[in-house]
Design a protein that fits this description.
134 residues, mainly alpha, 5 helices, 2 strands
Length: 134
């Protein structure tokens, strides 16, 4: 897929926000407060850009877009939103500990997250949104 590192992260941020908008949850365990912040951001920014979605919201909430399959070993996945998972950033947080198994030099691999397919599955095309309950 075309695009660099940021392209994939920006696309994933938009898709993640759309999932939260449609379902009240996303692909990571957002807290109730984070969901509220995301929902308020959506209302205040109905025409947000991909950059705004990431830098104005996801990053400000303390998360980083992590490439599931690291770009050095899998350069073709750099711009693909499916290759991004949002992890808490900072020393000792999810990004380093889970995304890189404790050190940034460690390679990472994993399964892709197809948010666009999830969104398509929610919308059956008849104008009715199908969401799961708790």
């Amino acid at each position: 897929m075309l695009g660099g590192r940021e392209t994939g992260i920006f696309r994933a941020a938009m898709d993640e926000i759309e999932l939260v908008k449609l379902t009240g949850r996303g692909t990571r365990p957002w807290t109730k407060n984070e969901i509220k912040v995301i929902q308020r951001f959506i209302k205040a920014n109905p025409n947000m850009t991909q950059k705004q979605a990431y830098y104005g919201l996801i990053n400000k909430l303390g998360y980083v877009g992590h490439h599931i399959n690291n770009v050095d070993d899998f350069p073709d996945w750099a711009g693909d939103a499916r290759n991004i998972f949002f992890l808490k950033k900072g020393a000792g947080e999810e990004h380093v500990m889970l995304g890189h198994l404790g050190h940034y030099k460690n390679s990472s691999t994993g399964m892709l997250i197809d948010r666009e397919a999830m969104i398509r599955m929610l919308n059956l095309g008849d104008g009715h949104l199908v969401t799961g309950g708790r």
